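FORM 7B: Structural annotation worksheet

SECTION A. Query
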Amino acid sequence: MKERRKAVKLTQEEFAERAGVALTVVRKIEQSKTNLNMEKVNMVLRMFGHELAPVKSKELDK
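SECTION B. Predicted structure
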């Protein structure tokens, strides 16, 4: 995410504001922190046209 954010020349603060999330959310994602709120992550991912969704364990076994 950091590379894409920098490619569009946005600071973490600017990116967070445009995504509608707190600056700490952007920082945690860029630092690969765990235990993130999926809703907040999706707000950030939508900036790039993506979204996360839960996957059933049966689907992972395929």
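SECTION C. Observations
The mean pLDDT is 90. The CA atoms of residues 4 and 48 lie 9 Å apart.

SECTION D. Sign-off
Analyst initials: ____
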